[in-house]
Amino acid sequence: xxxxxxxxxxxxxxxxxxxxxxxxxxxxxxxxxxxxxxxxxxxxxxxxxxxxxxxxxxxxxxxxxxxxxxxxxxxxxxxxxxxxxxxxxxxxxxxxxxxxxxxxxxxxxxxxxxxxxxxxxxxxxxxxxxxxxxxxxxxxxxxxxxxxxxxxxxxxxxxxxxxxxxxxxxxx
Length: 172
Prior knowledge:
The chain has one domain. Helices cover 61% and strands 0% of the residues. The protein is built from 7 helices and no strands. It has helices spanning 3-23, 41-54, 68-79, 82-103, 112-121, 128-146, 149-155. Helix 4 packs across helix 6 (128-146). It is flat.
């Protein structure tokens, strides 16, 4: 073995040991870093399933594929008042327990039609935490979808201000 191959292998091993911890996600933590919200991995997965139920994937990408749950978390963390942030986290934990009480299962384990029926039943409940949480989540999900790269580049066809010229337009 010569010196160059030994140094090369040593550098590969050193680089691998530096990069390997970055490849593994610590279980229990949220995907993105937030300053005001404290969300664990289970709550993030619940929010991802809720966003996917609000905007399901079909021939267009759904909420989970567009990572709208991360958009919702970041918007609530950065742009909402501390009262809204507290109501959001309280509503997130209450949402899962309310789903267990009403439907008998966690929201994540429900089938799609039962999820939709559960979300439609949220309009008549008296629990303000769940209503406020669902309202914030729904509004930010729709905002994230309409501002996503997919919608802005593939669905909307933008024309400059004067528009195109149509010489055959009838004047009546």
